[in-house]
Specification:
Rossmann fold; 11 helices; globular; N-methyltransferase activity; S-adenosylmethionine-dependent methyltransferase activity; Euk-Arch_PrmC-MTase
Length: 275
């Protein structure tokens, strides 16, 4: 997925550099850039405000010079961070080459994607990747109105993850994967995970989410609903957090289903029994 791009959205980090994702992950964990680490640094009010896309409390809480504060400003608040502070905590050359960072002037860097620590159900330190400005908190945090923008984790995503039955299975299908949170959860208990989406940018970001979280890679396929599923395939578990706006026209891929009434959900339910 090296070449996945959109002229109106910034280029994404390479998903063909597992070495870069692994080194970045090690650096993030080494600086306690985790859900627990953020809660300790920011405090409960500022941490909760981030989930509402309110950044001022976090900006106030990160005026120091620790590595963790630099990472919060870089990946969560999308602020330029001086070279010296970034170089103290991240493998700068690798992050630049693989596209996780970009230069902001002569002596500063900015992140190319939003990276959010996410605590897994077994205490795992995971990271959810999304487009800049598309953080936890849903539509209020979107910084781009482009059709292909990829959202982070919202309440519907975490609710679905929480109610999904987690018995071990041979195969799981994540229908409309988005930023990859359901595929990430499924990777804990499914031998094989397939993730689909009509948006190639979402598939690219799912690959980044899985790699940065240290999870096994999923089989990523582009297409609508069950179209990418082959005739000879069956799945033990199907999860889907489909577009939630009922509209015959699609303005934002993650949100507008392009069907009227209950047609989208009806199609998913009716066709699920065939795979």
């Amino acid at each position: 997925m090296e070449g996945v791009s959109d002229a109106s959205l910034p280029p994404l980090p390479s998903s063909d550099r597992p070495d870069a994702a692994a080194r970045l992950r090690d650096a993030l964990l080494g600086a306690s850039f985790t859900a627990d680490g953020l809660l300790e640094l920011l405090g409960a009010p500022a941490y909760a405000a981030l989930a509402r896309s309110e950044t001022v409390p976090a900006l106030r809480a990160t005026r120091g010079d620790t590595p963790l504060e630099a990472l919060v400003r870089l990946f969560l608040l999308q602020q330029p961070v001086p070279y010296a502070r970034v170089a103290d905590v991240l493998p700068v050359d690798v992050c630049l080459e693989s596209g996780w960072l970009t230069r902001a002037g002569a002596d500063a860097f900015t992140a190319t994607v939003d990276v959010r620590p996410y605590g897994g159900p077994g205490g795992e330190d995971w990271f959810i990747v999304s487009d800049l400005g598309c953080a936890v908190g849903g539509a209020g945090g979107i910084g781009s109105g482009d059709e292909g923008v990829v959202l982070g984790v919202g309440g519907a995503s975490t609710t679905l993850a929480g109610i999904t039955v987690r018995t071990p299975v041979a195969s799981a299908l994540d229908l409309g994967t988005g930023s990859g949170i359901q595929a990430l959860h499924a990777a804990r208990h499914a031998t094989r995970v397939t993730a689909t989406d009509v948006n190639p940018r979402a598939l690219h970001i799912t690959a980044l989410t899985l790699a940065l979280s240290g999870a096994p890679a999923a089989e990523l396929r582009e297409g609508s609903l069950f179209t990418p599923v082959r005739d000879d395939e069956t799945y033990d578990l199907i999860v889907s957090n489909p577009p939630f706006v009922i509209s015959p026209g699609a303005r934002l891929t993650y949100r507008d289903g392009g069907m009227g009434g209950d047609d989208l959900c009806r199609t998913i339910v009716q066709e699920a029994g065939n795979v």
